[in-house]
Structure formats: structure tokens, C-alpha cells
Amino acid sequence: MRFSHQASDSSSQKSDNGLVQFRSKYMTADEIESILRMQHAATHSNDPYIDDYYHQARLAKKSAESRLKHHFYPSHLKDLPTRGRNNTEQHSHLPVDALGRIAFSSIRRPRPLLEVDSPSSGSNDGSTEQNVTSPQDGGIQLRRKRQMLLEGLAASLQLVDPLGKSGHAVGLAPNDDLVFLRLVSLPKGRKLLFRYIQLLFPGGELARIVCMAIFRHLRFLFGGLPSDKGAAETTIDLAKTVSTCVNGMDLRALSACLVAVVCSSEQPPLRPLGSPAGDGASIILKSVLERATELLTDPHVAGKCSMPNRALWQASFDEFFSLLTKYCLSKYETIIQSIFSQTQPGTEIISSESTRAISREMPVELLRASLPHTDEHQRKLLLDFAQRSMPITGFNTRGSSGQVTSESVRG
Question: Residues 183-215: pLDDT tens digits?
């Protein structure tokens, strides 16, 4: 048996400088090199931010840890149309050329992952390195683009501003927060939310709108810790992030957040800090009260709080304080009823049991943080409640107002 060996139409060999030179039967080496350059220019933009995104991101993270400056941003930005909430376009359309053909993406030249404009074409020497310099406008364009992207994400969540653009209250429909609730029902959605809040300016209107949506659904978000460890950590991180954002708000935004809690259809989970059932809502509300105390007592900041904003805060706090005290009274009645149903009256066991139950169930930190904002009547109410809730042996339940069961109070 004989095998016929035919010469190949093309071959390659290394030159003296180590570069591969292609040879062909029908094309010269220069022609092949020219085609390779055209193919390389079509598939490489000579922008490290696009061509090697993950490597550049790793270098930026490494330089941040070592306190070295490594700029990481695209050289050019491409403006994309933002889709508003009331967009009437329901269906997407495929691009069709003049001949009626549908243009699909090529597997040899896929669509770029990042929608950025490539820099003006120049001489391409095959080098992938690029000198990255600071923007000439000081980053104004990048900050403006960043704000547009943040607003676009808020629009995609279909968040409603109850205060309205004119400052007048706007009613909320039952399904206004449907997209938001579907997102935060997933652990990844909550992680996206707290990372999104980290990018917001704490004193901005967008941060207020997002936080008001969170305050409207404190029970949905922080009603209980998930059994999954990762999901539980995400919920805790979300509470800490919202608390940090609250610490940068002004008095008007704080008032709006308390109004969102009071007007919500959900009873917020008012628990003591460190509760095993979850204390995210209490951490956030405590931050609101302490931030308001700081704004109203700091002589350098108090002068900037206008009288209308002070009046709005006091009205918001009065409603929240009424909600808080009603919850505490109901919770206290529930604790006492539960203890007396299990223990004989007049025994010393009642004192220790009530002490442990009150410290375990009562949001004492919220009551303490509310003190600087209370008036004379509210302080007297707190004093009476404190004296009443002191564990006394042989406590008489005939003075209690009505029968309250543990199922009627959500904690």
C-alpha cells in the first residue's frame, strides 16, 4: 500500500527574531501579515478596559488594597437611552436591514460585553497597553453618567416617590412596589440592593426614595433571619448599609422615612438589639432617631434645620412614638398574660420570668433613643410604663386593659 504525500498549500516557520512567519503557495508573507493585521484590528479595540476587563479589574482591586493609584474606567462612554417606568413600548424589535434580512451577531465577532464607544482609530501596532490618564474635565462627565445609571436602575425597580416632585404627597397603589418586592425576595436581589445603596449619595433625593421603599417593608425585609447562612449575612449587611445611609440624611428625609413606617400596612418588627429573630428594623429605626437627635442638638447643624422641617419631624415622630408605645404596651400585656397562665400568682418565679421576658421582647433601645424627641406628656407616658413594667411579685392583672393573646402581637 502506498501513501501519496502532497505538499501543503501553506506553512509557517519562525524567523530569527522569534516571530512566526506564514508562507503560502498563492500569497506572499506580506499579504498574509496584512490580512492578520486587519483581522486583529477588527476584533481588538486596543482598550484594556474592554479587551481584558477582568484582568484590569483585578489590578484595580489589588492597587486599592496596596493604596496605589490605578485608574479603572472606560476611555469613552456611550449614551444609552434609559427606559422609564411609563414606557409604552411593550415588545422588542429585531434589527432588519434594507433587504429585509435579520442581522444576527456573528460567532466570529460577538457583541462586546460593555457598551462603550471605541476611541478614534489610529495606528495599530498590536500593543495592548494604553496610557490611562485622568479625565480632562475632572470626572464631571463620569459622575453625571454614574448618576444617570443609578437613576435608570431606580426606574427599572419602578420605585414611587410618595412626596412627589412638587413636594405634595402622592398616594400609593397596592402594586406600586411589586417589582421591588420581587427583587428583594431573593438573596441576590438583597445583595444587589445594599450594594446599590452604597453607591448612592446619602443626602440625595434618590437615596431618600430608595430608603422610603425599604421603610415601607421593614417586616418583609427584616421580619426574620433566613435559615441559610449566606442569605442571613446579606440581610444583616443590608440593615447596616441602610443605617449608614441614614446617618447622612437631613431632617426632611428622616421625617419621610418615619412617615413611610407609620403609613405602611405592615407592622414593623420592633425587637431589642441582638434578638435572635433579627434586629435589622430596630437598627435602622434607632439610626433614624439618633441622627435626628444629632441634627437638632448639634449647634453647628441645628441652625440649618428650618422650622417647617422641624415641624414635619415632630409630627412624624409623634405618629411613630404612638405606634411604638402601643406595641410595647401590647407586648407587655402579652408577656404578663403568658406568665400568669403558666405560674401561680404570688410566687417569686413571676419576678424573674417577667424580667427575662421583658428584656428579651421589649425594644428598650428604641424607647431610649426616642427620649430626646418626647414632650412632657410622652415622657410621663414612658415613666408610667416603666413603673408598670417593673417586675413586682404578686402583680395584679385585673388592671390590664382587655385580653391580649400572643398571636395578636407580632414581634
Answer: 999 889 999 999 999 999 888 899 999 999 999
pLDDT for residue 252: 92
Q: Comparing C-alpha atoms, which of 169, 159, 279 is closest to residue 212?
A: 159
Mean per-residue pLDDT of the chain: 75
C-alpha cell at 376: 412632657
Residue 128 predicted with pLDDT over 50: no
Q: Which candidate, 205, 211, 210, places its Cα nearest to that of 167?
A: 205
Residues 6+ apart with CB under 8 A from 246: 202, 211, 254, 257, 284, 287, 288, 291
Q: How far is CA 88 from the centre of its chain?
A: 27
C-alpha 128/C-alpha 45 separation (Å) is: 9
Whole-angstrom distance between the N-terminal and C-terminal Cα of the chain?
Answer: 90
Place of cell 530569527: 16
- Taking the C-alpha atoms of residue 302 and residue 291, their distance in angstroms, rounded to an integer, is 12
C-alpha cell at position 357: 421576658
Residue 309 near residue 167 (C-beta atoms within 8 A) = no
The pTM of the full predicted model, rounded to 2 decimals, is: 0.63
Contacts of 347 (CB under 8 A, 6+ apart): 393
Closest CA to 134 of 71, 177, 204, 185: 71
Write down the domain spans for the chain.
142-163+171-389
Residue-level pLDDT at 217: 93
Q: Do the strands 10-14 and 20-24 form a parallel or antiparallel pair, or are they unpaired?
A: antiparallel
Listed in sequence order, the residues at least 6 apart from 284 whose beta carbon sits closer than 8 Å to its beta carbon are 214, 215, 218, 222, 239, 242, 243, 246
pLDDT of residue 208: 92
Can you tell me the distance from the alpha carbon of 382 to that of 388, in angstroms, rounded to the nearest whole number?
A: 10
